[in-house]
Design a protein that fits this description.
Elements (H helix, E strand, L loop, with lengths): L1 E5 L2 E3 L5 E8 L7 E7 L6 E6 L5 E3 L7 E6 L4 E6 L8 E9 L4 E4 L3 E5 L2
Parallel strand pairs: 2-11
Antiparallel strand pairs: 1-3, 3-8, 4-5, 4-9, 5-6, 7-8, 9-10, 9-11
Length: about 120
């Protein structure tokens, strides 16, 4: 199984980025896909998740600014991030989890830096 994130980078406050996570080696539509982030000196936190049925949930601070989506035909999950703030700066990682089996997998992460 491999999860590969892309789309990170540096952006000014108020800007936008779109993260992508390409999954391979798993039956993608069985898995809940999530984005987590970890800022320096802080614990990793769940940002957004989308289950196999397309139901989503978001961490409170990103509601209305971030949108998670998935394309099961391409084994892809996305995180559209708008109105970015300096406090969104972190390494963002993709996670695939299949609750019935207890299996989960992580990507390597992509850096997002929001700074003027």
């Amino acid at each position: 199984v491999q999860l590969v994130e892309s789309g990170g980078g540096m952006v000014q406050p108020g800007g936008s980025l779109r993260l992508s996570c390409a999954a391979s080696g798993l039956v993608f539509n069985r898995y809940t896909m999530s984005w987590y982030r970890q800022a320096p000196g802080k614990q990793r936190e769940l940002v957004a998740a989308i289950n196999s049925g397309g139901n989503t949930n978001y961490e409170d601070s990103v509601k209305g600014r971030f949108t998670i989506s998935r394309d099961n035909s391409k084994n892809m999950v996305y995180l559209q991030m708008n109105s970015l703030k300096p406090e969104d700066t972190a390494v963002y990682s993709c996670k695939a989890a299949w609750s019935l089996s207890g299996r989960y997998y992580w990507g390597q992460g992509t850096q997002v830096t929001v700074s003027s």
